[in-house]
Specification:
The complex is a heterotrimer of chains A (267), B (354) and C (330). With 267 residues, chain A is α+β, with helices and mostly antiparallel strands. Chain A has five helices and nine strands, in the order αββββαβαββαββα. In chain A, the strands form two sheets. In chain A, strands 1-2-3-5-4 form a five-stranded mixed sheet, covered by helices on one side. Chain B has 354 residues and is α+β, with helices and mostly antiparallel strands. Classes of the chains: A alpha+beta (267), B alpha+beta (354), C alpha+beta (330). Chains in contact: A-B, A-C, B-C. The interface between A and C is large, with 57 and 63 residues. Chain A: Its main location: cytoplasm.
Chain lengths: 267, 354, 330
């Protein structure tokens, strides 16, 4: 048991020394690749992912028999999990269902968030590379995608900030006093029930919710509340990264400063 | 995204071809014929692997390579009793190519696409060419290391990615470490938990072992009599010949009493030369002034035939193969002392291995 | 050194500017004097709820609300009563009247589709080009059958944006003697507008410069979409310039659609390569690309070239940084 219940209830510390409501170390960079329209690199603990966005651009070749008459941009998501990303080297093939499901989940979340109606007849291609996995894979991918899309200058309604939340006790153990947990690592994900949740910015509106483990429905609300709170923290972090980069670009003279804001607007 | 056609207009191609045929050639970015674009390289970026490296060029193309090693049981092929007892030489004779698995991931392309398979085969064959590789992975007669090399191209493939992938693989292999063996003989392998005690797959200078260094593969093009290294995509588009040349450095163990080997005196061994189809073969020809149908309302009376005398300033796709003299010139330029291979290996050695 | 291997640069140390980490939804409540990190708008940030403002590019209004919210990361621009957000970096969006360089990617029945580095391919109708033989020549069916004799896939063309369709796609035209197929030169592509590296809209996008080392004259064409063409200047017939409308038939020469290059001198080709390196160095060092910068950069480059015995043209890496430093120092 990763939590080793006896010591957990004593000190309430997890294997890596965190408390139940602490996120792992977050690190992110935006504009990591000049050749791409948008790019980002994100770390959530030891989970490291990179995202490259190309577009919106028009594809001459039509894929899968789709017509080019589209009112909004098409979103193509491609996830590559490197063979060296987990402890055991594992090469996933093209038809890996788990990867396909992740791709579809991300594409659907973006379809309602991005203002694709502004780019008819085009497509946006998102390439995600997983360099290292230690839990919260879908959450890290969503966060990295959001950053890269903002870097590419594609208009969207709000950030999609994601994280995982779980419970300290398995379904089988039926421990009623189980506490919710925030941001699980790989070890914890394998043993405990958890869900991935993504919110729209720091509101309470949920954009993505994935739960593939068995958990009592009474515990679900607690997990969700903790997850949403974690998402707000993640959003603050992502926003900070974007603002710093933006301020740096304004300082360099690459972008012009804002016209007066604030009080002037409210006159 | 599916393989993007890099399009050029016939006028551009004619200009580039003329520019690169001059003596000395004028490259579009003004580089010398043997000058490489600056690249940024770092190793040890993935702590979960045995070795890793990341290289990116100034034009934005980027690659990451990770090396992982796993223990595998050696399958003994049944042999007749008259064979000599197993010796190291015999083991390597069988060139255990299957102890190395190399996978190349290019965004937007399936792994069974011809170009991807070709790339991974070229990299793999260069690694196994010297037949020394298997010795490094040998533990004892029952077990060996199986090495997995995963090569990831991060950026969309704008230019031919072979040299980038090859350089990154070279660095990743140089940085690869294997845990130190504590067990002896043929017993089940036991290793030292202390990573600091681990040994490099390619031992550093000074240790008395035979063995070469990992190879590098350079992309070379020839236009007319000019030989050009590290071609940009424009230069590749007008190349008459494109070659992938693999070289490796051979290090000999220093016996007692040997003189100090001059650091510049690398011994290079040419591992392979592979021809690559340059995209210039598929380009449509340019239209000269005289037969331009747009200039008159009548249909042209004479069509431009392929094999017609070349009109100055009009592009025509190159035909035919490479002259021997050009091939010779390329090999010379690569292998000579202080030549291109030497410079590239020098540059790579300067990268700190973390 | 034929090969330079660099260490990766760590992310630039952010200056310890007093950047308050207010939650963004408060940014419309007058941040006070030290607006620094607050200057940057991010998606989902409410700009203002005041109904006197109208919303422009980069903003949206939630259905059922009056607050204008940003949909991009960027800086705010106010034009009279219009609020829009200028993104930190975005693809080129065509505007009517833009001078663009495009590459033909598709040939259809009566038109071509042109890549102009925008989100959609632009259209060039056969009715929008100059047919050789005269401006007033009638378009016949043979023209449509021989459409590839005008422009084929891969050709570069300089054109002007004539109109924009509903969906944002641009329609181009080359109905002027200064537009048409490009030859005698090299092509450079710089990434999209914004973000510092890119072509800015300026009064003069095309100009001719005198180059050093007896190179003659070179035309530089900065397409607003980031596609640039540098070529040898070909003297057009001075008669054609002065001719009146009656004699226009003769002035559209038969050479307009040929892809044959005129003879080029070595010195001109060298200088063209030098200008190309200057532009790439400007982009690499995040400077604006416009006539002023290119001309100044070129003279600096000629100076730098004199330092090495065989007039080294290459401006990547360290030399490019020196060039940029010399330009920004001015």
């Amino acid at each position: 048991m990763p939590l080793d219940t006896s010591t957990y209830s004593l000190a309430l510390l997890r294997v890596d020394g965190r408390r139940w409501n602490e996120l792992r170390r977050l690190h992110a960079q935006i504009r990591t690749q000049d050749a791409a329209d948008g790019s980002s690199y994100l770390e959530m603990g030891h989970t490291k992912v990179m995202c490259i966005v190309t577009g919106p651009s028009e594809q001459q070749q039509q894929r899968r028999g789709q017509t080019s008459q589209r009112d909004a941009a098409a979103i193509n998501v491609n996830v590559v999990i490197a063979g060296f990303s987990s402890v055991d080297r594992k090469k996933s093939g093209r038809n890996d269902k788990r990867i396909q499901e992740i791709e579809v989940t991300i594409a659907n979340a973006l379809a309602s968030n991005l203002h694709t109606h502004l780019f008819p007849h085009s497509s946006i291609t998102i390439s995600l590379h997983v360099l290292s996995q230690d839990g919260s894979l879908l959450a890290a991918l969503l966060n990295a995608t959001t950053l890269a899309l903002i870097d590419a200058g594609i208009p969207m309604t709000d950030y999609i900030a994601a994280c995982t939340a779980g419970s300290t006790s398995t379904y089988a153990a039926g421990d009623d006093s189980a506490d919710p947990l925030l941001d699980l690592n790989n070890q914890e994900e394998q043993e405990l029930p958890f869900l991935t949740v993504a919110t729209l910015g720091d509101s309470d509106r949920i954009a993505v919710l994935v739960c593939e483990s068995r958990v009592q429905v009474t515990r679900l609300e607690g997990m969700l509340v903790v997850g949403v709170d974690g998402c707000k923290q993640v959003k603050q972090f992502l926003d900070q990264v974007v603002r710093e980069k933006g301020a740096e670009m304004v300082r360099e003279g690459a972008v012009e400063k804002s016209d007066a804001m604030g009080m002037v607007l409210d006159e | 995204m599916a393989s993007q056609q890099i399009l050029f207009s016939p006028a551009e191609l004619a200009y580039l071809h003329r520019s690169l045929s001059l003596k000395p050639p004028i490259r579009p970015d003004g580089r010398a014929p043997t000058q490489f674009r600056p690249l940024t390289a770092e190793t040890g970026i993935l702590p979960g692997t045995n070795g890793s490296a990341r290289v990116h060029f100034s034009d934005g193309t980027e690659a990451i390579v990770g090396v992982k090693a796993e223990i595998e049981k050696t399958i003994e092929a049944p042999r007749a009793e008259e064979s000599k007892p197993e010796s190291n030489e015999a083991a390597s004779e069988r060139t255990r190519g299957d102890w190395l698995e190399l996978a190349v991931e290019i965004p937007g392309q399936r792994d069974d696409e011809a170009s991807t398979v070709f790339l991974s085969e070229m990299l793999r064959e260069a690694l196994l060419a010297d037949k020394e590789f298997a010795k490094k992975l040998f533990i004892n007669r029952r077990f060996h290391w199986r090495l997995y090399l995963d090569v990831l191209l991060i950026s969309p493939p704008l230019s031919y990615p072979l040299p980038l992938l090859s350089l990154t693989t070279h660095l990743a292999l140089l940085a690869t470490r294997l845990p130190r063996l504590k067990s002896e003989g043929d017993e089940d392998p036991m290793f030292d938990d202390d990573w600091e005690a681990s040994t490099f797959l390619y031992p550093q200078e000074g240790t008395a072992t035979n063995g070469s260094r990992p190879p590098i593969t350079l992309l070379v093009v020839a236009i007319g009599d000019n030989v050009i290294f590290d071609p940009a995509k424009e230069e590749l588009a007008v190349a008459e010949t494109a070659l992938a040349v693999s070289v490796a450095e051979v290090r000999r163990a220093q016996k007692a009493g040997d003189m100090e080997v001059d650091s510049k005196g690398r011994e290079l061994s040419l591992l392979s030369i592979r021809t690559i189809d340059p995209p210039s073969r598929l380009t449509p020809p340019g239209v000269p002034h005289t037969s331009n149908t747009g200039s008159s309302a009548f249909a042209p009376t004479k069509l431009q035939k392929a094999g017609d005398q070349e009109t100055e300033g009009v592009w025509k796709a190159p035909l035919g193969g490479t002259k021997f003299g050009v091939l010779d010139g390329i090999i010379q330029a690569v292998l000579e002392k202080g030549g291109v291979a030497d410079e590239v290996l020098d540059g790579l050695e300067g990268v700190e291995l973390s | 050194m034929p090969i330079t291997v660099l260490q990766p640069q760590p992310a630039a140390k952010r200056q310890a500017a007093a950047m308050s980490v207010d939650s963004d939804s408060d940014s419309d409540s007058g941040g006070g004097a030290e607006v620094h990190g607050e200057d940057i708008l991010t998606p989902g940030t409410v700009i203002t709820s005041n109904s006197q403002w109208m919303r422009g590019h980069g903003t949206y209004v939630q259905p059922g609300e009056t607050a204008i919210t940003s949909s991009l990361a960027g800086t705010l621009t106010k034009t009279n009563k219009l609020l829009s957000v200028r993104p930190l970096r975005a693809r080129y969006t065509p505007e009517i009247g833009d001078l663009v360089v495009g590459r033909i990617v598709e040939v259809q029945a009566k038109r071509w589709r042109v890549d102009v580095a925008a989100s959609q391919l632009a259209i060039l109708q056969i009715s929008a080009i100059n047919l050789p033989g005269g401006i007033l020549r009638k378009r016949t069916e043979t023209d449509e059958l021989q459409i590839r004799s005008f422009f084929a896939e891969g050709d570069l063309v300089v054109a002007e944006v004539q109109q924009l369709h509903q969906d944002g796609a641009a329609s181009l035209h080359t109905r002027s003697l200064k537009y048409g197929k490009l030859r005698n030169g090299v092509f450079v592509s710089v990434s999209g507008i914004g973000g510092g590296s890119g072509v800015v809209r300026a009064k003069r996008q095309v100009w001719t410069m005198d180059v050093a080392n007896a190179g003659g004259k070179v035309d530089v064409l900065l397409g607003v979409n980031g596609y640039i063409w540098i070529s040898k200047h070909i003297e057009s017939d001075t008669n054609a310039e002065a001719v009146g409308i009656n004699r226009m038939e003769e002035s559209v020469s038969s050479k307009v659609y040929s892809s044959q290059n005129d003879p080029l001198e070595l010195s001109t080709m060298r200088e063209i390569a030098r200008i190309r390196s200057v532009i790439l160095a400007l982009v690499e060092n995040r400077l604006k690309v416009d006539e002023d910068m290119v001309t100044k950069g070129y003279s600096e480059a000629v100076e730098l070239g004199r330092e090495s015995p065989d007039d080294d043209l290459y401006l990547g890496g360290e030399k490019g940084q020196r060039l940029a430093a010399a330009l920004t120092g001015h």
